[in-house]
Structures are given as C-alpha cells and as structure tokens.
Protein: Uracil-DNA glycosylase
Amino acid sequence: MNIKNELESLPFEKSNMQFCNVEIDPKKVRAIMINEVVPADPKQDFYGDDDAAYLQTTIPLFQKAGIHVNSISDILNLGVYITNAVKVPKTEYTVSNVLIEGSLPFLEKELSLFPNVKVIMLMGDVAKKAFNIISKKSAKKNAVPGVATYKLRSSEIYYAGIRIMPSYIMTGQNILIEKSKFEMAAEDISVMVNLIQQ
Structure:
C-alpha cells in the first residue's frame, strides 16, 4: 500500500499537504511515531532523500537507544512507521491550531491504516495535541493528560488498547541543542522497540 495514495483519496482540501510517499505492508507495522510537522522541502522528510534532515536526527536517536539502524528502511523493517501530525510546513515558529486541525482527517485516516499497532509514540507537544483531539472525538476525553511530558514518561497510557507514549520532538534544531531531551527520547524509543518485539 502506498500511504500517499491512500491519503490523497480523502475528500478534503489538500493544497500544500505533504504525505509520506512510501510503499508499506500495513500489517507489519507494530508502532507509529508521530512527529510534529512536515519540513518545507519534502526531500528532507523521513521518506525523502537518503540524507534527509529528518533522518539526521532520527537515526541517531535509534542508535542511542541501542538499535542498529542506518536508514528509514531499517526502521520500517523493525515494524516502526514514522509520520507527521501536521501535513503542511509551518510558516511561523509555533504550529497553530488551524494547521493542526486542517491535517487531522489525514492523520486519523493514516492511523487507521495499520491494524496491528501496539504502540503510538507522540514526539512533541504538537503530536500530543493532535492525538488528543482525535481521541476526544471518540472517547470524549483526552488520551494523554495535559501535564508536562517528563511527568508522563513513566505512566502507562492506553487508548483503544494501544500503548500511547508521549516523548520529545525528534527533528529540527531543538533536538540537537537539548541533549537531555535527546537522551530521554532515545530511552523512550528503546522501551517502544522492546514492547513491539514482545
């Protein structure tokens, strides 16, 4: 299945939207990592160029977690699919609620494509906010409590039988600067991989 083709078939406004252009067997995916927002240049996204900017922080996170990966294919082969909550590049420093809400139908559809998911990692506050809006529609409440991520990391949060793991942003300059968040995100990835291999 091609994820981009699946999402482009939805009857919603798609101008400037970027979708993961990847062929994948949805049944093999055991974990989904939701990053915050697509990059301005699609070639810098997870499924873009081999040396894409998003992979330059993501691959080291997996390696720090003790997982031997060198490419997005290696990550997919683990059963881990990575996507972005917001499907249009941000134009300001922060990501507005309008951008998040415009992308929600696509993220919701994307999450529904994978029947065997055991873990969803929310990489940053935008991913957490987007997922909570989705969960509130069906469960009438937020899946993830509105407290700081460091307070939630040791909690076991479940939504529809899936373990939800709030963590830290995995792309962009912030992660290169904030070493403690890099370390914690790597620890969370290690937990996630252990959970899906059980």
